[in-house]
Amino acid sequence: MFIFSLRGILHSSPNHHPRKYNLFHLSLLLFGRIISLMAETKAKKPRYLTKSRYKLALECPAKLYYTGKPQYADQKVDDEFMQTLAEGGFQVGALAQQYFPNGTEIKAIDYDEAVEETARLLEKENVVIYEGAIRYGDFYIKADIIVKKGNHVDLIEVKAKSIDRNEDKFEGPRVGITSDWKPYLKDIAFQKHVFKKAFPKLEVSAYLMLADKTALCPTDGLNQKFKIVKGANDRKSIKIAKPITKDDLSVEILTKILVDEYCEMIYKKEDVKKKKADKLTESDKLSYEEELAWYADCYKKDKKIEMCPFIACKECEYKATDEDKAKGLKSGFEECWTAELSWKKKDFDEPTVLDIWATKSKQKFMDDGRYKMKQINKDDINPVPDDKGPGLSQSQRIWLQIEKEKGNDTSPYIDKTNLLNAMDKFNFPLHFIDFETACVAIPFMKGKHPYEQIAFQFSHHTVDKDGTVTHKGEYINADPGVFPNYDFARALKGELEKDNGSIFRFADHENTILNKIREQLVADRSKIPDRDEIVAFIESITQNKDDNRAGKRNMIDLRQLVLRYYYDPYTKGSNSIKKVLPAVLNSSKFLRDKYSKPIYGAKDGIPSKNYENKQWLKIEDGKVVDPYEQLPKLHKDLTDAEVEWLFESDELKAGGAAAAAYGKLQFVDMSDEERKELEAALLKYCELDTLAMVMIYECWRELVK
Fold first, then answer.
1. The pLDDT of residue 149
2. Which residues pair with 141 in a beta bridge?
3. Alpha-helical runs (H) found in 60-155
């Protein structure tokens, strides 16, 4: 009910006098104001602590203040969708519903409407509900699957995460719930808590439903029956493209695991009891219910929870790039650090301890009140050699980064002697290869496990002894429902078996993938005529620590050469190829002279399969334009920062942007034109990865000769 002051109403409009109103006019005015305020109240969404906001609070309570506010930059706006797309998570949710048929999906968007519809269904003796909405006080959840039988409810949270029940454990011997599983278990514990509060008379059991790594898919093409479609307001949903058969469901490749005992551990805050007194946070000092109430109250009142900077700030999504700031967006990260450390704008221009590569001492430095890299001394790092061979040890490389930063030294470091010794052992022609892969929950083929590796693309460059560079070959198979691994290996074998030249990869990814394909070939019971030849080829160019095997033509890891013999401050400590490439272009006169001309893909230049007359080196404001920024976007609906997250994300590992693009090609309804455009972009991306390796080699060759 709305109560108004008559005087306030009469004086709410200027240039009007109370005496001019009769009763009819007053009634109209009162009615209009009531309608207006009702509309405003309805438009203002309630500020409930949902499970996604609870997850944010667990990462950092200050994030509750920044989430959903358009004035703050958010670099992970779409990361959950992209990760779920890359892993096939949408399909997992839809498949889980098939294991609990005849359910009712709650489709209402409005909070109250969804809650009321769910409550009505729960009045039934037996019912299955998908996306059920439950509210208690300031808490609100949407449960993936609710199964009610009489007075008992199974609350099931479906996750696109795999588990081997014989090997993977939720609890460690000394640490309690392991860090890998803690976010998932706290998620379902929160849901169970809210459900129990809302329906205290019902008995509730909590479950996680996960992809079973030991299960074998019973049919071909199961994942292709679940298509992602976009509806109103760009909302994504799953469409069942083909009927789900009994055979499809004859083997459950998702497993339901009871987790009530872990929920109880969370409610009792067993993990907190293992912490040292000086490591306790404000939330640690509260009971479970008090902690939830604190988060909910602060979010409801839009009150910021002040946090002392800590190591997780490194991954904060509320950082504003220069581009964001030019658009008027704020940086939540900078606001937090300013509030706690009284920093000025110039302080944020200096590298922090969060920027130091590979050290485990970052939190210790911050606990000591040292937040800037320049505050770290040599004794803090203790740089000493290791026994892994010539070149920089990890501690020496860490100190090299800090030392150059403290001395404002922007010149690249290169160990010419040891790098030259390594390069003298290379056999020409040199082969540079890069793979794009995916790893999805629902297998493409019968007899495959969830999350088996899929290798759908490679690129291959060569460099001859006279320095001739050629984009020699490539492979891509992104056809929906096709398992490409064996054809991929055959094509790679055809590219590399013509000579005995050295083969280069960047990091472990290619070696890992080829060993996975070898395992798949050995385990596959179907008839594969050239199985032995492909296995022998893979063994000849890979290594495997488990069986102490290294092939005669074992691939050379270019990243390891970077780590041991080369460091450029331009990379800011990163060893990603997407950081090393612009660094070598920026520092190498040879590369600048060569690639500032449109020779790549030119008739008399460097042969390319996807580019014509491409000039890779471009200068803006005195700096090299990152070649990766010159590529067509794989994800046009994402910002550059979000694409950067896909490349660098710990969750998506190598090639996350490509894996998500492959997911689109597999699971999203799109036109033939859109499909061809996305495949063409993938080819260009992968080709640049191997060209980047070539450029790094060329830079070194000119430096050491």
1. 98
2. 134
3. 63-66, 79-87, 89-99, 111-122
In whole angstroms, give the CA distance from residue 90 to residue 187.
Answer: 18
Domain extent at residue 486: 422-558
Q: What's the confidence (pLDDT) of residue 409?
A: 97
User: pLDDT at position 47, please?
Assistant: 95
In a domain, 470, yes or no: yes
CA atoms in the 13 A half-sphere facing the CB of 365: 21
Residues 224 and 134 in one domain: yes
Residue found by looking up tokens 């469409």 in the block:
239
Looking at the structure, tell me whether residues 22 and 165 fall in a common domain. Answer: no
In DSSP terms, which residues pair with 463 in a beta bridge?
430, 469
Question: Could you tell me if residue 334 is inside a domain?
Answer: no
**270 three-class SS:** helix
**Whether residue 32 is found in the same domain as residue 145:** no
Given a contact cutoff of 8 angstroms between Cβ atoms, the answer to whether 400 and 567 are in contact is yes
Nearest in space to 502 (alpha carbons), one of 419, 418, 431, 423: 431
Give the Å distances, CA to CA, from 473 to 14, 476, 494, 566.
Answer: 76, 11, 10, 29
Give me the pLDDT at residue 20, please.
42
DSSP state of 203: E
- The Cα 42–Cα 157 span in angstroms is 30
E strands in 477-626: 503-505, 543-544, 549-550, 556-557, 566-567, 619-620, 623-624
Q: What is the dihedral of CA 397, 401, 402, 403, to 10 degrees?
A: 90
Residues 648-704 have pLDDT tens digits of: 333 333 357 788 888 888 888 788 898 999 999 999 999 999 999 999 999 999 999
Quick one: pLDDT at residue 40?
Answer: 46
DSSP-derived 3-state class of residue 630: helix
Residue 564's closest CA among 679, 415, 372, 440? 415
**pLDDT at 570 (0 to 100):** 95
Pairing of strands 430-439, 453-463: antiparallel
pLDDT on residue 646? 40
698, β-bridge pairs: none
Given a cut of 70, the residues of the chain with pLDDT beneath it are 1-44, 77-87, 231-235, 634-655
Residues 261, 267 contacting (CB under 8 angstroms)? no
**Type of residue numbered 505:** R
DSSP 372: B
Examine the fold and report which residue of 247, 274, 301 is the final residue of a domain before the chain moves on.
274
